[in-house]
Amino acid sequence: MRKQNMKRRFSLAALAAAGVFVFAALPLRAESGLVTWLVDTPTAEIVDHYGYNLGFRLYSGGGVLTKGTFGVFPRLNVGFGLDAEKFIGADTVDLNPPTLNAKFRLFDGKRYLPALALGYDGQGYFYDHSTDKYLQREKGLYLVGGEEVFTPGLTLTGGANIYDFSDDRIYAFAGVNYVYENFLGVVFELDNVHGKPRTNRMNAGVRCFVTPSVSVDVSGRDLWAASRKAERIVVVNYIGSF
Question: What's the whole-model pTM score?
Answer without folding.
Answer: 0.84
